[in-house]
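Contributing new records

If you add data, match the layout below exactly. Sequence lines come first and carry their own label; structure lines follow with theirs. Keep one chain per record. Anything else will be rejected by the validation script.
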Amino acid sequence: MKTNFIYSDKPQENLDIEDELSCLTADLVEFECNLPFLEKLFSTEAGKWVEISLLCQGLQEIEKQLKQVQKSFDGIIQVAWLEYPQIPGYCLIIFFVEDLFWNNLALYNQEKFLQSKRKSNKEEIR
């Protein structure tokens, strides 16, 4: 199925559903405006699958994109994270749609994210 979508304010022409999902999930881990998604994800237990829409509540642009992309298939988009043993402080973020047997994997510097969050929390206290 081909559709036209807009991700990150850049038009994307004739993406198939797998490409749409890849763009959406890349935006979730790449853009600072989506940090609440990562905060919620990392507050869950490592290895626990969570429905992505639960972690994206309040991210209006992502919520709109999710509604649009989910019109193209049945099922849910799930996400989990795991510690990455080869590089301390890093983790794998795994996105999965069982109905499409689609997945996307991101290697993420979780320690840097957590340090930034701790620094931000200290500044808020002052």
